[in-house]
Amino acid sequence: MRRGSRAPAALAADVLCVVVFCAIGRRSHAEGLTVAGVAQTAWPFLAGTALGWVLARAWRRPVALLPTGVAVWVATVVVGMVLRKVSGQGTATSFIVVATLTTAALLLGWRAIARSLL
């Protein structure tokens, strides 16, 4: 498989990781698991993921931990938290810590697994 052809699957994996993170968070806080509810929680983080992809030019090396994975992860958390704050959603310190660690495990974890298999 050519490197460029991995980009759509890698982007889909990143989106899936963010949506799973948001769905788990909503479930653990007894919030509804509706499509609209998950979308409301996920959009700030997905915006960050998109920016991370652009900044890292992730389509060039979509499975790379550095710089792609780290850039996507950091942008996901930072932009996600900023957008949550300006849109009136919660940004408690404990949430920032959990979001940072969980998205690291998800966004970097799938890349580590994929790299070991390639």
TrEMBL record:
A Pfam family the protein falls into: DUF3054
Parts of the chain that traverse the membrane: 32-56, 63-83, 95-113
Domain of life of the source: Bacteria
InterPro entries (alphabetical): DUF3054
Keywords: Membrane, Transmembrane, Transmembrane helix
UniProt keyword annotation of Transmembrane present: yes
Protein name per Swiss-Prot or TrEMBL: DUF3054 domain-containing protein
